[in-house]
Amino acid sequence: MTSDTQATTTKPSGCTNFKLRQLTRRVTQHYDQHLSAAGLKITQYSLLTHVDRLGPLAPGELARRMDMGASTLTRNLQPMVAAGWLEMGAGHDARSRLVHITEAGLEMRRQAQRRWKAAQLSLNDKLGPATVAALHDLLDQGLAAFHEEDTHED
Questions:
Q1: pLDDT for 94-124, tens place per residue?
Q2: Contacts of 13 (CB under 8 A, 6+ apart)
Q3: pTM (2 decimals)?
Q4: DSSP string, 102-136
């Protein structure tokens, strides 16, 4: 039996959510260990990076771009605003707000970027670059399927 035939006849075993959560916890721990010397967690580094690259932007748009719930984003933003790395500024009208990265946030991101890169390279070494690339492809396919589903619900 060829690997193509196996792929079409093999059925998933176990709970996909549980397996993804197991891997996610381990990968998060891996990145957090590397970033801890900079005083950040991977979730914080990711937020700083997204706001730096996309911002200033509305919290709802940031949550959408990060595939994150609004309440989770709010909970993650609060300590970063308190630390002075991000700030909530006025939006396009009196009712809207925009998330901005501060100079302190830019500096924190710059300091943590080398540690993030070391974590990424270490993960590539641990899993193998081909496995990481294949994992990225599979994850992108999965996210695309959910995004497609989301657009059909509107």
A1: 788 999 999 999 999 999 999 999 999 999 9
A2: none
A3: 0.84
A4: -HHHHHHHHHHHHHHHHHHHHHHHHH-HHHHHHHH
